[in-house]
Amino acid sequence: MAAPKVAVVGAGVIGLSTALCITETCPSCSVTVLSDQFSPNTTSDVAAGMLIPHTYPGTPIHVQKQWFKETFTFLFAISNSPEASEAGIHLVSGWQVFKNTPKEELPFWSDVVLGFRPMSEAELQKFPEHRFGQTFTTLKCDCPPYLLWLEKRLKAAGVQMHTRKVADLWDLHSEYNVVVNCAGIGAHQLVGDEKLFPVRGQVLKVHAPWVKNFIRDGDGLTYIYPGIHRVTLGGTREKGSWSLSPDPGTTKDIFDRCCSLEPALRGARDIEVKVGLRPSRRCVRLQREVLSRGGVKFPVVHNYGHGAGGFSVQRGTAKEAARLVGECIATLPGSSSRAKL
Ligand SMILES: Cc1cc2nc3c(=O)[nH]c(=O)nc-3n(C[C@H](O)[C@H](O)[C@H](O)COP(=O)(O)OP(=O)(O)OC[C@H]3O[C@@H](n4cnc5c(N)ncnc54)[C@H](O)[C@@H]3O)c2cc1C
Ligand SMILES: *[C@@H]1O[C@H](CO)[C@@H](O)[C@H](O)[C@H]1NC(C)=O
């Protein structure tokens, strides 16, 4: 059999990370990324890219923790390499504050991030309206740089990238042996998944280089996430809204909320407003499926539905998707299990 041909649909953080893992686990595969949008036009470009997991109610916690750990380890290595600035990966320390002590004082990811501990009384003085807080150091992926860096690595590994809107995964069966669905919220239409819904998020990206620490309101929606060049201010969580137009009232509300947490932001300049649709689901859809028409079979691997936490679990879910691609290849007619698993 010739080199197995794998198509990855989607060029957000999930599609690009998955394509990279496939080139690593299956060096003999010919990988193509097909997407209707590329950076800077994906949901992933809107995200803050902070590594703070979101909890998927439909996935066992130990699995989510493993995904996060693999992602943290992968990005931590990049942050410690000369690639860090081009990849837009950096460590950032800060505070998650609460009005009252939360039920779960230790989130499941507390021993994966660095230096997690409760805030001291002295630290809490910065937040007169909050009585409890946690401090830790985590990683942040700045986008677009991180997505562009992934694209560059993929091109260097021989991956083709084409702009193409896929109407039906079946349309790819005559050109590819396996397809990987990383369409994010696009999967709602692409595979008719009614369990997938948008959670609209509006953010501001501002110039405020004097803000160095992240701040996250553990009870609410407000966050301040400093990147290398811009600070991301958020946010909103509007379930079921498909609107991509920024709302001016929301912009003012986000800015005011962030300034009350961090008064130094009043001097922020060059405010850019962005909206993205989180591809939300009870659990990430990470599984194999075999499409079959007229006796012809076409294996698919799904990897979408990362909701509010795609950056935080990108590498863990991409590795699992690549493993599933290997399983699909092993079952192709004429295969001698050529994929190195
Ligand atoms: C405001 C906001 C802030 C966020 N902050 C964080 C954060 O700090 N940390 C974190 O971990 N997560 C965060 N997230 C969540 C994160 O952005 C998502 O989980 C992640 O971007 C999902 O990545 P994806 O690759 O699945 O989707 P996308 O980035 O949307 O990529 C999907 C790709 O599929 C393509 N596509 C779709 N349909 C088709 C089709 N039919 N044919 C061809 N191509 C198609 C699209 O063009 C796109 O390239 C945030 C999200 C928002 C909205
Ligand atoms: C992003 O969208 C803009 C506006 O539609 C378009 O001009 C640009 O070419 C797109 N960029 C990429 C990389 O597709």
UniProtKB/TrEMBL annotation:
<comment type="similarity">
    <text>Belongs to the DAMOX/DASOX family.</text>
</comment>
<feature type="binding site">
    <location>
        <begin position="43"/>
        <end position="44"/>
    </location>
    <ligand>
        <name>FAD</name>
    </ligand>
</feature>
<keyword id="KW-0732">Signal</keyword>
<dbReference type="GO" id="GO:0007320">
    <property type="term" value="P:insemination"/>
</dbReference>
<dbReference type="InterPro" id="IPR023209">
    <property type="entry name" value="DAO"/>
</dbReference>
<feature type="binding site">
    <location>
        <position position="166"/>
    </location>
    <ligand>
        <name>FAD</name>
    </ligand>
</feature>
<dbReference type="GO" id="GO:0007625">
    <property type="term" value="P:grooming behavior"/>
</dbReference>
<feature type="domain" description="FAD dependent oxidoreductase">
    <location>
        <begin position="5"/>
        <end position="324"/>
    </location>
</feature>
<dbReference type="GO" id="GO:0005829">
    <property type="term" value="C:cytosol"/>
</dbReference>
<dbReference type="GO" id="GO:0010646">
    <property type="term" value="P:regulation of cell communication"/>
</dbReference>
<keyword id="KW-0274">FAD</keyword>
<feature type="binding site">
    <location>
        <position position="278"/>
    </location>
    <ligand>
        <name>D-dopa</name>
    </ligand>
</feature>
<dbReference type="Pfam" id="PF01266">
    <property type="entry name" value="DAO"/>
</dbReference>
<feature type="binding site">
    <location>
        <position position="223"/>
    </location>
    <ligand>
        <name>D-dopa</name>
    </ligand>
</feature>
<keyword id="KW-0285">Flavoprotein</keyword>
<feature type="signal peptide">
    <location>
        <begin position="1"/>
        <end position="19"/>
    </location>
</feature>
<dbReference type="GO" id="GO:0042445">
    <property type="term" value="P:hormone metabolic process"/>
</dbReference>
<keyword id="KW-0560">Oxidoreductase</keyword>
<keyword id="KW-0963">Cytoplasm</keyword>
<dbReference type="InterPro" id="IPR006181">
    <property type="entry name" value="D-amino_acid_oxidase_CS"/>
</dbReference>
<dbReference type="GO" id="GO:0071949">
    <property type="term" value="F:FAD binding"/>
</dbReference>
<protein>
    <recommendedName>
        <fullName>D-aspartate oxidase</fullName>
        <ecNumber>1.4.3.1</ecNumber>
    </recommendedName>
</protein>
<dbReference type="InterPro" id="IPR006076">
    <property type="entry name" value="FAD-dep_OxRdtase"/>
</dbReference>
<dbReference type="GO" id="GO:0005782">
    <property type="term" value="C:peroxisomal matrix"/>
</dbReference>
<keyword id="KW-0576">Peroxisome</keyword>
<dbReference type="GO" id="GO:0006533">
    <property type="term" value="P:L-aspartate catabolic process"/>
</dbReference>
<dbReference type="GO" id="GO:0050877">
    <property type="term" value="P:nervous system process"/>
</dbReference>
<comment type="function">
    <text>Selectively catalyzes the oxidative deamination of acidic amino acids. Suppresses the level of D-aspartate in the brain, an amino acid that can act as an agonist for glutamate receptors. Protects the organism from the toxicity of D-amino acids. May also function in the intestine.</text>
</comment>
<dbReference type="GO" id="GO:0019478">
    <property type="term" value="P:D-amino acid catabolic process"/>
</dbReference>
<dbReference type="GO" id="GO:0008445">
    <property type="term" value="F:D-aspartate oxidase activity"/>
</dbReference>
